[in-house]
Amino acid sequence: YMLKPMNCPHHVKIYASQARSYRNLPLRLAEFGTVYRWEQSGEISGMTRVRGFTQDDAHLFVTEDQLADEVLGCIELVQIIFDKLGMEDYRVRVGLRDPDSSKYVGDPKRWDKAEDACRAAAQSLGVEWSEEEGEAAFYGPKIDFVVKDVIGREWQLGTVQVDYNLPERFDLTYKGSDGVLHRPVMIHRAPFGSMERFCGVLIEHFGGRFPTWLTPTQCHVITIREEHKAYAGQVAEALKEAGVRVEVDDSDNNIMKKIRNHRKLQPAYLVILGDEEAQSNTVSLRARNGDQVAGVPLQDFIADLSNEIEQKTPVPSLVPSPPE
């Protein structure tokens, strides 16, 4: 068997599996594919530098006239992801040819067009961006999203790359409106880059305190005594039906120990249930920052929580902080 270092040739073979027309383009193929790189042992580090990782890999096959719009669409997708995750400290790097090097493949005029498309796309984002000569791949210019983590280290995450090499090497063609065969342009797109590296940076970015919508287990339901188990089951089931990720602690541990243990796991909310809550069909809430509120009707909590998740609110907000 063999371990693949990239997904590109597989998508190329799919494109080449049948005759293509300009009417079929752009053709976008995407997958979450595991790839392998023989990193040196001294370079391996946690989740950010590994030998086997998963890429959110896509390859777009486009005409020359579609190139600019497709590049723009790719980097807008990356920006949407970063914005949703609250990752604001990043810059965009446009990698261009080194004018003194002859390593690049492809028609110089097509390169000019691709570099102009990358510049225009980067400029349209309204964030810090730079041109860096010599940072292009030998097969085409590229756009990298460079993210700064909580201790100031920079990581290259999302990337968009124009490729003139693989379509040539694999003799890819499409029939144009003029009835003549043309060579498509290939775009590599990976908004997250390495999923492992992205998750590592994301965990450090939030310090484990994820927004409610991203928190692995959003609510931990805690009973005060054994007789509250039945109501805890009802609350958990209602939350699950609403799409909330929940777990229940109905153990015999005392309530303070339960709260202490579960706060370490950093759910968005602790849902605490006792006699009063069971009798009135309400819940008492403790937010991640320690703020508390009691007597919240269960259905109101579920509705508000569902809205908070849908709106992707940056921090848990259903428990008001006490006035200073």
| Largest β-sheet summary | 7 strands, mixed
Tell me the strand percentage band.
Answer: 25-35%
Tally of DSSP helical segments = 9
Whole-number tally of structural domains: 2
Q: Which stretches are low in confidence, meaning pLDDT under 50 for 5 or more residues running?
A: none
Classify the fold: give the CATH topology of the largest domain: BirA Bifunctional Protein, domain 2
**Which structural class fits the helix and strand makeup?**
alpha+beta
Instruction: Let me know the average pLDDT.
Output: 89
CATH architecture term of the largest domain: 2-Layer Sandwich
- What's the CATH class label of the largest domain? Alpha Beta
Q: How are helices and strands ordered from N to C?
A: HEEHEHEEEHEEEHEHEHEHEEH
Distance between termini? Answer: 65 Å
Secondary structure: number of strands:
14
How large, in whole angstroms, is the Cα Rg? 26 Å
**Anisotropy-based shape:** elongated
CATH superfamily of the largest domain: Bira Bifunctional Protein, Domain 2
How much helix, percentage-wise, in residues? 25-40%
Sheet with most strands: strand arrangement:
1-2-9-6-5-3-4
What does this structure look like?
The protein is an alpha+beta fold. The chain folds into two domains: 8-206, 2-Layer Sandwich (BirA Bifunctional Protein, domain 2); 212-311, Rossmann fold. The protein is built from nine helices and 14 strands. The chain has helices at residues 8-16, 67-84, 108-124, 165-169, 195-206, 229-241, 255-263, 275-280, 298-311; strands at residues 27-36, 52-62, 90-96, 129-133, 142-148, 154-163, 174-175, 181-182, 185-190, 219-223, 246-249, 269-273, 282-287, 292-297. Strands 1-2-9-6-5-3-4 form a seven-stranded mixed sheet, with helices on both faces. Strands 11-10-12-13-14 form a five-stranded mixed sheet, sandwiched between helices. It has a two-stranded antiparallel sheet with strand order 7-8. A hairpin with a 4-residue loop joins strand 13 (282-287) and strand 14 (292-297). Helix 2 (67-84) packs parallel to helix 3. The radius of gyration is 26 Å and the shape is elongated. The chain starts with 7 loop residues before the first helix and ends in a 13-residue tail after the last helix.
